[in-house]
Structures are given as C-alpha cells and as structure tokens.
Amino acid sequence: MDGRRKKDAVHLRREIGPVPAVSLIVGTVVGSGIFIAPKGVLANSASVGLSLVVWALCGVLSLLGALCYAELGTTFTKSGGHYTYLLQTLGPLPAFLRLWVEFLFIRPAVASYVSLAFGRYVVEPFFAPCEAPAPLIRLVSLLGVTFVVAVNCWSVTMASRTQVTLTFIKTFALVLIIVPGIVALAKGKTENFQNGFELEALTPDRLPLAFYNGLYAYGGWFYLNMVTEEVINPNRTIPLAIMCSMVTVTVLYVLVNVSYYTAMTPGELLLSDAVAVTFAGRALQGVSAVIPLLVALSCLGALNGGFFSSPRMLFVGAREGHWPPIFSMIHIRRHTPLPAVLFLYPLVVLMLLTEEIQHLISLASFARWLFIALATLGMLVHRYRFPRLPRPFKVPLVVAVTFTAVCFFIVGLSLYSDPWNTGRSCALTLTGVPVYYAAVRRSRLPPRCRRVFDYCSKQLQILLEVAQQEVKTY
User: Fold this and answer.
1) Cβ-count burial 364-396 (b if 16+ within 10 Å, e if not)
2) Which of 193, 233, 207, 185 shows the shortest CA–CA distance to 20?
3) Would you state the pLDDT for residue 45?
4) For position 448, what pLDDT does the model report?
5) Which regions in the chain score pLDDT beneath 50?
6) Three-state SS letters, 143-209
C-alpha cells in the first residue's frame, strides 16, 4: 500500500508521543483518589507516620506493576492491555473473562464513581453549607460523561490534547496544595508529626484496608498499555512514560499528604469529607474557592483517560473474535473506535442511576487485582516457555515475582476480609464461562438469530459510518 493510500486508509494512527503518554498515565491516576483516600489511609493505619509510609509503599508497588506492564507492552505490540497479555500468555478463556468483567461492571462502576465525584465538586460549592441535591449532582455527572464521550468519538488528537491540558491543571492543583505545606514546615509547623508512629491503635486486620485505599488512588498506571498501537515508538515511549509518571505521582502524593498534616490534625482530617477543600479553607483562604473546581477538572481528566483507553480493549477483543465484529470498526473519517466508545456510554449512564456504586467498586477492585496478578503470572510463564523471544524492555525477575506474589496476597486477603463482595465478584466473573463456550468458542446461535444479528450489524455500520481496519498496526 503506497504512502497516500495508507494515509487515507481506515486505521488507528500513531499519534501519542512521550508528553501525551505521560499525561495519559498521570491524568488517569490522579483523579478523585488523592482527594478522598487520605482519610481511609489514616483511619486504617492509625498514625501520621505510618500513613505516609503506606502512601510511599503503594507508590512503589504501583511502579513495580507498571514496570511489569512495560515489559508486556513492549513484548506484545497489540493494544488491549490486560486482555492482550492474558490472550498471549494464558489463553483465550482468561482473556475473554477479563474482557467480560471489564464491561460488565469494572469500567462502568469506576467511570460512574469518578463522574459522581466530578458532579459533587461542581455542584456542592453553590449550596454550601447545605447539602446539594442528589439529582442535580447526577445530572452534572451525566453531562461530564457526555462531554468526555463526545470528545473521544470526535478525534483521537482532541482527546489526547484534552488529556494533556487537564493533566497540567490537576498537577497545578497538587502543587497549589504542596507549596503552603512546605512553607509551613520550613517555619517549624511540625506538631502534627511529633509522635507520628504511635501504633497503639493499629490492628493487623485494618492495615490491609489502608493499602487498599492507597492503591485505589494509584489505580490507572496500566492505561497506556491499552493504546500501544497508537503510541509513537512504543519500545522507548512506554517504559519512559511509565517510569516518569509513576515516580512523579508517588512524590506528589507523599508531599500532598505531608502538606495536609501541616494544616490539619489527624482528628480533623478524619472528620473531613473533602480533605482538599478543608485544607484550602485553612491554608489557601484567598483561593479556596478555586480548589473544588480544580478537583472537578482532575476527576474529568481521569474520566477522559478511562474513556480513551478502555474502549481499545473492546476494540481488540472484537478484532480477535471475542466480541461482535461491529466493535472492531473505526470511523472512516475521524479514525476513532466509535462503536467501542459508544458501547460504554449507556452502561455508565445506567450505573449512574443506581444507588449501589460503592458496592460495585468493591466488586471491581477484586476482579481488577485478580486479573493483574494473572497477567504478570502469565508474563513469568511466557518467559519460561520462550526464553529467547526478543523483549525490548525486561524487568528483573525479582521485581516480577515480588509484584505477582503481592497481587495474589491482596486477592487472598480480600477473600478473608470481605468474603461477600469477593464471592459476588467471582460469581459475576464466572458468568462469562458459559457465554464464552456458547457464543465465542463455538457459536450455537440458531441460523435465524445469526441473520438478524448480521442485519443489525450492517445497519449499525452504515449509521455510524464505520469500517474494518485496513492497515495492520501491530
């Protein structure tokens, strides 16, 4: 295919350079977590010093996982992240189950949670000190989701630029919190750090919950791997972006928490429902009204990163025959995976209308960590089976083994600490097994149903103006 034809052909372009790649990771990781999770980390670690240690260790653990995914992303050049790595290392059934749970409850639950945080921070300042109407919060949340979906349907470049802009804004928000804390420390305001490691109130069953809260705030380090085929020079960009972004986020998170403790006692932090807003009211009185807006934009950036990345998993799954073919199609002019992006929208809207989002987040956390553990286990198996396969980036074996063991420990611990939600998550995951054997491995649909399905797919293809990828990008 000559250069001109290739330029006009339907395919996903490589448009993500180093800066957009770092922005995708930082912008997705830094969402609502750092403004919500400090309360949960402190409550379960029972001391200021230990809570800071938990934040640092969660950052290190996330970095180890991100490095493992850097090896996977440079070894397997397809997009799709978790799905692709499970397919290549452990086989089609685990890969399909990862795809199944991603769109059954993980992605809708996480997106709904973040969008509600966006709506809450936009609406509540107008009603303070009274409680904001819940229907209005949900309406604003819905508008935020709609904006993000529209941007990601319209243009990959626009979505990437939006992510870069929102990442700079949220980084500014974190720096705005850090600077007054550093100034206060320089002036000797250290009383809240004295006796910081009093552990009398600490109990072994609560410490894992502190790590859960911290790891939630670091979630999203794997999103760049879902768009590998759109990354410029992925063998260099992926490892570089992962290391730069995760080190940056870890430093920022620890400094933000240090800054919180310069303005608030541990008891005051535990009483706050919006830690950043409480901090701003004390340390940033002149610009305190801006903080809720900055937090809202931070949530919007995390939402945009999720909608930019996750549909690529569905796109690749459909291309591999594990999902209806319509979802592997690309808009003929805008070159976006339009059907895959649109598929998420009604699922998130439906989740926004339910009252069980917090429970679904618990379900999603177990399934997410289980499949991350399986992906890195698959990496170790693949190393053993194909030791001479070229790996442009290779993490030390001790890093991969340590991270995999910790992931399985987290999964096992959740079986012990929250058997009800863990059991439900297992059950929901296993519902994909009969679907796989009935509809994927051997299609058992009656001929009439297949004809109706094919007709609907063709009509959707015409309506959405989409076509199959014409250029191999992996």
Assistant:
1) bbbbbbbbbbbbbbbbeebbeeeeeeebebebe
2) 233
3) 80
4) 76
5) none
6) HHHHHHHHHHHHCHHHHHHHHHHHHHHHHHHHHHHHHHHHHHHHCCCCHHHCCCCCCCCCCCCCHHH
376's tokens: 């890195």
d(CA 59, CA 238) in angstroms, rounded, equals: 18
The reported pLDDT for the residue numbered 352 is: 85
Distance CA 361, CA 421 (A): 10
Q: Given this model, what pLDDT does residue 449 score?
A: 74
pLDDT at residue 355, rounded to an integer: 57
**Distance (Å, rounded) from C-alpha 144 to C-alpha 345?**
11
CB 457 within 8 A of CB 325: yes
Q: 334 and 153 in contact (C-beta within 8 Å)?
A: yes
Render pLDDT for 386-419 as a digit per residue (tens, 0 to 9). Answer: 988 888 899 999 999 999 999 898 888 777 777 8
Could you count the other beta carbons within 10 Å of the beta carbon of residue 252?
A: 21
3-class DSSP string for the chain: CCHHHHHHCCCCCCCECHHHHHHHHHHHHCCCHHHHHHHHHHHHHCCHHHHHHHHHHHHHHHHHHHHHHHHHHHHCCCCCCHHHHHHHHCCHHHHHHHHHHHHHHHHHHHHHHHHHHHHHHHHHHHHCCCCCCHHHHHHHHHHHHHHHHHHHHHCHHHHHHHHHHHHHHHHHHHHHHHHHHHHHHHCCCCHHHCCCCCCCCCCCCCHHHHHHHHHHHHCCCCHHHHHHHHECCHHHHHHHHHHHHHHHHHHHHHHHHHHHHHHCCHHHHHHCCCHHHHHHHHHCCCCCCHHHHHHHHHHHHHHHHHHHHHHHHHHHHHHCCCCCHHHHEEECCCCCCHHHHHHHHHHHHHHHCCCCHHHHHHHHHHHHHHHHHHHHHHHHHHHHHCCCCCCCCCCCHHHHHHHHHHHHHHHHHHHHHCHHHHHHHHHHHHCHHHHHHHHHHCCCCCHHHHHHHHHHHHHHHHHHCEEECCCCCC
Tokens read off for 294: 């900055």
* Distance between CA atoms of residues 145 and 111, nearest Å: 8
The sign of the CA dihedral 123, 125, 127, 128 is positive
Residues belonging to the chain? 474
Contact 308, 79 (CB under 8 A): no
| C-alpha to C-alpha distance for 274 and 179, rounded to whole angstroms | 19
**Contacts within 8 Å (CB) and 24+ apart, 461-465:** 461/326, 461/329, 464/329, 464/331, 464/338, 464/339, 464/342, 465/331, 465/332, 465/333
